[in-house]
Amino acid sequence: MLRERYFQYLLHSCMKKKIAIINGPNLNLLGKRETDIYGDLSFEKFFKQLQDKYPKVKLSFHQTNIEGELVDAIQKAGFDQDGIVLNPGGYTHTSVAIGDAIAAVPAKVVEVHISNVHAREDFRKLSHVSAKAAGSIFGLGLKGYELAVEYLLSVKNEK
């Protein structure tokens, strides 16, 4: 009951918020790739579910396998949107430029990873994103995106 009231409050108080979801490399293969780790639902179907759950929030979605395009998308959304849900995929562990792009924009960024990167290979434990993000969500599957959206709806736009 209390959770439902809170959810209704979020929907009512955040009717005009714009949130961008930006996915990095290989996330276009969700539902097909390593389904034991990432599940069998495509991101397009999941995104439709998010839009249905948050009808009064303007959600946008961008996916690219190219690092520079991720930087461009963060820069564009970071000045145009109220918040960003970012899954930089494998670039999390290698891209200083993505971390710098997050630091350069006023929008809050929540880092999301479907798998628990800390329970995987050692090289995945390094993130150039986490220190620049408002927060990070690991290992909760696609539910992490929903939690990130809820967080962005609940906070002011100040970074």
Integer average pLDDT = 88
> How does the overall form come out from the CA principal axes?
globular
Distance between the termini: 31 Å
Q: Please identify the top-level CATH class.
A: Alpha Beta
Beta-strand content bin: 15-25%
How many runs of DSSP E, i.e. beta strands?
5
What fold name goes in the CATH topology slot?
Answer: Rossmann fold
Question: How are strands sequenced across the largest beta sheet?
Answer: 2-1-3-4-5
Low-confidence stretches: none
Question: Layout of helices and strands, plus pairs?
Answer:
Layout: H1 2-13, E1 18-23, H2 35-38, H3 43-53, E2 58-63, H4 67-80, E3 83-87, H5 96-104, E4 108-113, E5 135-138, H6 143-154
Parallel strand pairs: 1-2, 1-3, 3-4, 4-5
Provide a brief overview of the structure:
With 159 residues, this protein is an alpha/beta fold.
Structure in words:
Helices cover 39% and strands 17% of the residues. The protein is α/β, with parallel strands linked by helices and 159 residues long. The model has no long low-confidence stretch (mean pLDDT 88). It has a single domain, classed as Dehydroquinase, class II (Rossmann fold). The chain is built from six helices and five strands. Helix 5 links the parallel strand 3 and strand 4 (108-113).
Search tags:
159 residues; alpha/beta; Rossmann fold; five-stranded parallel sheet; 6 helices; 5 strands; 39% helix
